[in-house]
Each structure stands twice: as structure tokens, then as C-alpha cells.
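Small ribosomal subunit protein bS18c, pasting as requested.
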Amino acid sequence: MDKSKRAFHKSKRSFRRRLPPIGSGDRIDYRNMSLISRFISEQGKILSRRVNRLTLKQQRLITIAIKQARILSSLPFLNNEKQFERTESTPRTTGTRARKK
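C-alpha cells follow.
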């Protein structure tokens, strides 16, 4: 058969279905920190629904649970522990400058 007359065929790849990140027994609640922490980035941001592979309803419930946990101080608003670590101490200058006469 000539190449120009061949029908277009998609390549057949083996497709392994991923397991859903939230099981049927998991309860989406602000107290379930092991579940909530899976859906937060290293910076403390809520990951998108596409990244999490959640349904719309599950994403809404996760978002509400994360926000409730933040308000109740179970979860920090920002995860910036590395920001405050300094390797060298830098001398600080005062805000007053010597004025020329």
C-alpha cells in the first residue's frame, strides 16, 4: 500500500489509569492534615485542579478545608522557612547620613 493512501492510525500506547488522589473513604476536612498537605505546593500555594487530578467538587472542598485550616492556624499561610535563613551576617547601616556643609 502506498504511504499517501494509508489511513491515519494513532499509535497504540499502553495506558495505565492513575488512581484518584482521594479515595472514597477519605474525608475532606480541615482537621485531616495528611490529606490537605498533599494539595499544597512547597511555597504554601493551593495546587490547581489539573495538577491534583481532582473533580470540581473535590477541588472546592479541598480549597475550603485549606482556608479553614489556615484561619485556625493549623496550616501556615506561607511556607517561607528558607527565606529567613542567612549564611553570613551583613553589617547594617543606619539611615542617617553625614551631610556636607
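Note for the archive: The first helix runs from residue 33 to 36.
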